[in-house]
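Q: Can I see a sequence and its folded structure?
A: Here is a first one.
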Amino acid sequence: MGMEIIYRILCLVLGYAFGLFQTAYIIGKIHHIDIREYGSGNSGATNALRVLGKKAGAMVFVGDCMKCVIACLIVRLIFNHVAPDMTLLLVIYTALGVVLGHVFPFYMGFKGGKGISAIAGAVISLLDLRIIIAGLVVFVIVVAISRYVSLGSIILMIQMWTMYMIFVLNDPETIYHLGQAYVVESIIVLGCLAALAIYKHKANIVRLIHGEESKLGQKKEEKVVDIHEN
């Protein structure tokens, strides 16, 4: 049991280290700006899209998504041989670490992004095509209809966690190769990951309720007065 706790901690630390790679901040610096001082004040793909354009937005999304995929792949390659029945749980811990590093980077005063692109990498890392495809379809439909990326992101979090919970409780071994002893814990940790992302959207939720949220395609280049509110 002692080694299993160490495995969890190592995966969280590894994930956090990968999460510190702030793609939006780096690309912003290449353009001679601090992305956190423009638009929503968020160091993420949506704000990069609004402030720096489609190419930058796409680069940020891919970069933040892949840092989670790569971290989770490393964990799979290591623990598939060391602890095969808990590998998926460790992958989820790694993904949580990546999101924590992305959202709370210590070298940026713990002010990073909201973690959605990184969580997209976490969804891919579950290696369940049902969740990946359903998540992509629902996100695209919600954003296409509403033009609210934040709404699509929130619904994606809820859908991802709900589908995983249903599937893993029904059959943890066939697709996930997860030992029964780790099923509930994996649901809780993945739920924490989703809850963190939704919590980081609290200001967006308030603006959605009041009809003040910025829609996709709306530029928001003004300097942020209080980035703590975004």
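Q: Show me another, different protein.
A: A second, unrelated one:
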Amino acid sequence: MVTHIHPDHIDMAMDGTVGAPLDKNVPVICQNEEDAAVFEKSGFRKIIVLSREGMDFGAARLTQVPARHGTVVPCGEAMGIMFTSPKEKTFYLAGDTVWYPEVQENIRKFSPEVIALNCSAAELVENGRLIMNDEDVWSVAMEAPQARLYLTHLDNVAHATITRHTMRSLLMARHVEDYDMPGDGESLCY
């Protein structure tokens, strides 16, 4: 699953192709026909565009939900993905987004129990802040008190303005405690 085509989400070559080191036989789920065309040009054989209506994937239902990748001008299209399954917790992969009314609506509509947030407050001059900062994380925590937050996309991009260490301090000041912030290579089960 690739929420959008940017070099911090998938390898990109100078010729515009992506995913050179990946197995081209593994299915790829992407957000729109434009991204699908890039994957096709790159040699991927099974490309699925995830619609807003969603799709069944094994025992889970995947639904594309809106994301806004920039506070000034969006840095291209991006999506979030909601995962629902009768035997699992509802999982919201917010993707590269900032807090805005659609994120609030996604939470209200699906009541996710686990929410993954990209939250290093990465920014570019022309786009503004591209992903969540501590205030956005606090907003999600206030909107979804039932959810465990999974904070990621920290300490891995040059245009980030908040580190893991700083985020912990900022969230402590905001009294946000119900989150996990994995270290490099660490994984968690919910």
